[in-house]
Amino acid sequence: MRQFMDVHHGMKDITADQLREAIQDNRAIEGEEGVHFERAWADPEAGTVYCLSEAPSAEAVKRIHERTGHLTDEVHPLPLTV
User: Number of structural domains, the chain?
Assistant: First the structure.
């Protein structure tokens, strides 16, 4: 499995509860695409959310987000970890 960081823009003023709910929505169906969402971070002031996941492909990450209504603007593979 490869790691990916996806980025969502336009989520200004997101709360901790909203972020928690969004990641729970993703986790509820992640297995259907072979994805596992590990963690999420948010900057409510900038409106940016970041999600770290393990997945077979960037497309699988995008599909989970699309299905839960949390469209992602960018998905970046993370080929190196130290």
Answer: 1
Q: Which residue has the tokens 């997945």?
A: 55
Q: What tokens were used for 69?
A: 């209504």
For residue 55, give the amino acid letter.
Answer: A
Structural domain harbouring 53 = 2-77
In a domain, 24, yes or no: yes
Give the residue carrying structure tokens 């970046």: 76
Give the CA-trace dihedral at 27, 29, 35, 36, to 10 degrees. Answer: 20
pLDDT in tens, 13-67: 999 999 999 999 999 999 999 999 999 999 999 999 999 999 999 999 999 999 9
Q: Is the dihedral of CA 60, 65, 69, 74 positive or negative?
A: negative
Positive or negative, the CA dihedral 41, 49, 28, 79 is negative
